[in-house]
Design goal:
This protein is mainly alpha-helical. The protein has two domains: 98 residues, Tyrosine recombinase, N-terminal domain (DNA polymerase, domain 1, Orthogonal Bundle); 177 residues, Orthogonal Bundle (hpI Integrase, Chain A), CATH 1.10.443.10. It contains twelve helices and three strands. A three-stranded antiparallel sheet has the order 1-2-3, with no helix packed on it. It is elongated and about 60 Å long. The N and C termini lie far apart (79 Å).
Amino acid sequence: MIEGILKEYVYYLKVTKGLSKNTVISYEHDLTEYIAYLEKTDHISDPADITRDHILRYLSRLKRLDLAAKSVTRKLSSLASFHDFLKAEKLVTENVVRLVPKPKTVKSLPIVLNQDEVVRLINAAKGEGTPLDLRNVALIELAYGSGLRVSELTDLSVIDLHLNMGLVNITGKGNKERIVPLGEIAVLAIRQYIVSGRPQLKPKNREVLFVNKAGDRLSRVGFYKIIQTIAKRAAIEKEISPHTLRHSFATHLLENGADLRMVQELLGHEDILTTENYTHISKQHLRAAYEAGHPRAHKAAKEE
């Protein structure tokens, strides 16, 4: 019975909620594990039989598997959303997951590149100016210059670009559209790739903007490998990913006085609290610069 309800829920996430493919897959994976546990351990097939104790025992099992608190919290969130759906469909009278306290997590700030590291990364991407090098420069300039998510970058079509106006049309999470500005340097890099790089890569789909060497759409994993290779070439020791460029975009804007609401709109964040995380990074960098440059920053400073 629960498996059938899960199929309805997955359909609801795809069609009604309009969530991205990767998000839906994540929810489905978490809930498949959860339902399998309930059926095997407690022989439950009717969601009305699930109690708070069942949820607590499941959480205990996750902790015994040595999952990070962040992963447990994500799985608990998947369960809570599913039980919200069950309640809305009148299959249960209350959401028992909401009665369970969330695990405490240590909030870690995302890794960002400083502006010198960004320049080094871009210079390393230029390589010998091959079609793939032109693509890589366009990717990095666009990711850092506009703060797009990895999925938004890889999903881009040529028709989404309005280079003469310096704009790109983005379809983000929940199929929500937004217009993001492009800097002149990013526009130039994209033009060079489209004119001199992309045709030689022989795209199998003429609408897809970024393709791999086989002409297929560039994947998230492919982009990750590209960044890893270029970062190594640029002698950047930080553990970075394509998403690091988005973090750097937001942080550098705030460091240079951009309005928080404007950054929220550019990033496509639904909740401004998510954007506020970057103010913590900005303040952290400000503090580091102060301590490095001011003679009275440390207690050990000598009295004259």
